[in-house]
Amino acid sequence: MTAETETRVTGQEWAGSSAAELRTAYSSGTATPTEVLAEVLQRIETDKPLNPYHAVLAQQAQAAAEASDRRWAQGQPAGPLDGVPVTIKENMHYRGVSYPGGWAAENPPIAETDCPLVSRLKEAGAVIVGSTTMPDLGMLSSGVSSRHGITRNAWDPSWTTGGSSAGAAVTAAAGHGPIHMGSDIGGSVRLPGTWSGLATLKPSHGLIPLDAPYYGRAAGPMARRTDDLYLAMATTGQFDTADTTAQPYPACDWTPNALEPRGLRVGLQLDGGPGLPTDPEVRTTVEAAAEKFAEAGAEIVEISPIATDEYLTGIDQFWRSRAWSQYRGLAPEEKTVVLDYIAEWAQGGAQADGATAVEGYEAMLALGSRARNMTAGLDLLLSPVTPVLAFPAELPMPDNDPSTPMAHISYTVPFNMSGQPSGSVNAGRSEDGRWIGLQLTGQMGQDPTVLGAMKWWEAVRDESAAPAWQELERSRYGY
């Protein structure tokens, strides 16, 4: 290692950079993938108390970074993410790595093949540094897990990360590379995004293929900045027959371009309907964002709540039934280690008969139809991501009540059911410093519209709404 290289590694200059900045550095020889990986691994060691990883794939990442070094030295990068550090969520199959799903069952399954998303990342030369934590079954909006313990927020360990893409929120905020892949069935990318100051996207249904597709579930990227979401989508948003629910979308233009709101018809939803009331600071923050869109020439149209008690209750019952089908198959000793919250919630599905489960499934379909109908004719919909601010890290859910698990996802879950693209981007902070996100939702297949509006928002939002990533790095890493 040369003196120059030693300075670059110990100086920690690159781990929190954007993918575009890394590509420029690799192309010019200012940095190499192995040097950047060394920085990321140092951060991983420092951030162990935050508990963001199910598995650190140091050996595999080192081999990938060395191969990337050679390609860049030859001027032949494999793709737009060649040498770029990324993470994947625990439930994403990486050949040879276990995927326990957040709970402490013995002998978790080990992936025999890579899932489509991981295959696309590897083909593009990305350096996958690890598999990030999730709560039991991915059914909590926190980082509380019977297998991993508590995953804590990078900004303040007393706050929740959000979930279920809990570890991904930490690694994104802490700058363990620029791109972090999560999954979202009711808000599991957007919720941790809003509570960590991130930019995230739940794409149109099936745009990123899953090899274990499930109604409402989507894989999506999480990052410090919207530009990195574009690159993640360009790489992973490719049709794959492994996802039996996916269909080829018309080609999307993933060039990072800010979308000026002038002439757009933009909906505004400030009441989520059932569940927890919207915190006044959250409402004020979203109203202020809508005013900026209006000042830039958008037509603002207020809409009423999309979610209803009937639909959310039905979806909850369907999800409980599914969770019970998994929980009841555990050995007695395994059941004892599952989180009490999840065990109590899952047992609510024990008495559900087939008709009840079908009614729950129909509630998902009905809510999806209602969401599409109520947003028809809009270019975008603005809303809070969630009615509540980040809560204590030790709590599994905001209200800690297994009888009301849907109380905080009335803004997010309708768009899982409709399949529409829905992103989150930071819009402000509460008086006590907790981040508040803005949710932007578009029409099916119009993911670039959502990202374009998010990129525009990042350029015009108040300075206080832009997370101070360098400040976070100084506090965590001392530089």
Automatic annotation (TrEMBL):
A GO MF term:
amidase activity
Gene3D superfamilies from the UniProt entry? Amidase signature (AS) domain
Query: EC number(s) of the enzyme?
Result: 3.5.1.4
Q: Do you know which SUPFAM superfamilies this protein is assigned to?
A: Amidase signature (AS) enzymes (SSF75304)
Stretch forming the signal peptide: none
- What residue stretches are annotated with the Amidase domain? 35-451
Q: What class of enzyme is it?
A: hydrolase
Keywords of this entry: Hydrolase
Is Hydrolase among the key words of this record? yes
Q: Which domain of life is it from?
A: Bacteria
A Pfam short name: Amidase
Q: What is the protein named?
A: Amidase
Q: Please give the organism.
A: Nesterenkonia sedimenti
The root-end lineage is:
Bacteria, Bacillati, Actinomycetota, Actinomycetes, Micrococcales
